[in-house]
Structures are given as C-alpha cells and as structure tokens.
TrEMBL record:
Naturally occurring in which organism (per UniProt): Paenibacillus chibensis
Listed GO MF terms: hydrolase activity
Coiled coil region boundaries: none
Name of protein: UPF0173 metal-dependent hydrolase P9847_01660
The keyword Metal-binding appears for this protein: no
UniProt keyword annotations, A-Z: Hydrolase
Gene3D superfamilies in the cross-refs: Ribonuclease Z/Hydroxyacylglutathione hydrolase-like
Reactions listed under catalytic activity: 3',5'-cyclic UMP + H2O = UMP + H(+); 3',5'-cyclic CMP + H2O = CMP + H(+)
Family: Belongs to the UPF0173 family.
Family annotation (NCBIfam families): PRK00685.1
Length: 227
C-alpha cells in the first residue's frame, strides 16, 4: 500500500491497481500541490462534510465516474449534486472492488456549506481502509476518545493519519496518546499548518512518536510512504 499526502487531511491510497482519495481538499488549498483534474481514482472517501475535507469531491467523482463513499446524510447530499454515492454509517463496513471500508467514531461536527447556511451532514467518522492486505486508519477530524484503544485492539493498523492541529481537533499531546492506543506502526500527522490557529511542528511530533517506537512521517504535499 502506497500513501501519498496532498496537504491538510487529504491522502491518496493505492494498492494492487486500485486507488482511492480521502478528503480531497485541493483547489482551495494552495499547499496541496495537485489539481483535481490530475486525480485518477476508483472512489472518493469522506470523513465529514466540512469544506476543508469535502473539497473537490464532486468534481473528482464526476471526472472519474466513481462513487463518493460517506456517512448516509453526506452521501445523500452528494447524490443531489449528480454523482454516484454509497451511503454508510458509523460501525458499518462494506467491501468494494479491491478495497474495504469501515466507519468508526470521530468526535467532531459535520455540515456542508450551502450559500449562507450550513446543512447537517450526518455524523463525522474515521475510516478504516483495507487494501492489498494492509489497513490504513484515517481518523478524520476528532478529539481524543477512549474507544481509540478499542479500535487498536480490534484491528491491526499498519498506518494511521492523525490530526495534530489543535483548536479544531486534537493537538500533538492527544494525538501521541491516540497513536499508542491505536497501536499504529506508522503515523502521518495531518490537519495542521493549513490555516492560522492550527500551526504545529510535524517533525517534532514525529520525533516524539519515535521515542514511543512509532515511525512518523511529516510529509510535504506530494510525498509518499509505503506499508
């Protein structure tokens, strides 16, 4: 499994000829390093509806004629925009062609911006993605919560993407504990340095991970690692 980071919380995951993108906030993020038209995937996965995660999902899904997989209410909103969708919910899993998705808890909020209003977009979630015999956990936007320990006990997590920005999600201290509870072998810090108020030192966070025996990857947009 190859994991490529495209800024903020966006990752492209590839294995055995299949590829999916999670939270494709690209055109609105000057640090993404890639344009939506250059994304070629079999599915788009969303953790929740906020614009810095929803991003370019509609454009990418239409261009690739692929589904958007999301929690039910968010999937229905995407369907209303003229794309294929597959609605799921927290705790549920589903096998697709070449990969499996399971939604986990995430403690945050979720809504879609429509004009001057915000539309409820269902519960936020984390995503357990299994491809090519490996499992990648994208925590989405979340606070630290005790059931992360249970997620780690129930699943062999080869790598995890954890938010460290603080203010809107957990910060580095809580993310370090989350990494240990999840028993993740490798960790990609996400959701930091994109906006004011969420500035963090990703390299320092990864140094602290290494002290706990966990390999951290403070990637720049466009960089990858494999598991």
């Amino acid at each position: 499994m190859k994991i490529t980071y495209y800024g903020h919380s966006c990752v492209l995951v590839e294995a055995e000829g299949r590829s999916v993108i999670i939270d494709p906030f690209l055109s609105g993020n000057p640090a993404s390093g890639i344009a939506p038209k250059d994304i070629h995937v079999d599915a788009v996965l969303l953790t929740h509806g906020h614009s810095d995660h929803f991003g370019d999902c509609i454009e990418i899904a239409k261009a690739n004629e692929c589904p958007i997989i999301a929690v039910f209410e968010l999937a229905e909103y995407c369907r209303s925009q003229g794309v294929q969708t597959y609605g799921m919910n927290i705790g549920g899993s589903q096998s697709f062609d070449g990969f499996k998705v399971k939604y986990t808890l995430a403690f945050h909020s979720s809504s879609v911006s429509v004009g001057d209003t915000w539309v409820y977009a269902g519960e936020p979630g984390g995503i357990l993605l299994t491809m090519g015999g490996r499992t990648f956990f994208h925590a989405g936007d979340t606070a630290l919560f005790g059931d992360m320990r249970l997620i780690g006990e129930m699943n062999k997590i080869d790598a995890a993407a954890l938010p460290i920005g603080d203010a809107l999600t957990m910060g580095p201290e809580d993310a370090l504990l989350a990494a240990k509870w999840l028993q993740a072998e490798k960790v990609l810090p996400v959701h930091y340095n994109t906006f004011s108020g969420i500035h963090q030192d990703g390299a320092l966070f990864c140094e602290r991970l290494s002290q706990e025996g966990i390999k951290g990857y403070p990637l720049k947009p466009g960089e990858s690692f494999e598991i």
